[in-house]
Task: structure prediction
Amino acid sequence: MQSGPPGPPPPPAKNHSPKTILKAIGVVFVLGTFAFFWLTSLNDAGNAEAGDCVKKSSSALDDGLEVVDCSGGGAQYKVSKVHDGTSDPSVCSAGEDAYVKTVHRRRRADTAMVLCLTPTK
Result:
């Protein structure tokens, strides 16, 4: 009894080296870290505009204020004015609280802004 020609050899098993696995883990970690900080920065004080409501944040990773919905019960202040390019709190009127935000940049000059806040309650 003779059978037909032999079939093709099975494909070689893929051998993932530890170096390749570590690189993949590193890429996933970096992308995850970037995504986390990008998502958490969407509601920080640096994105606040006049008319937005803010509250003091409890997270140690942020800058202290978080933009919130004005209709919600968590709003503590309303932003009356935003002054970009300054860190001088005297730009706010009497009766307003000044919140100074400075962003330190590694390769560019630092940027600063002052939010003038009025209490919502």
Summary: Residues 18-41 form the longest helix (24 residues).
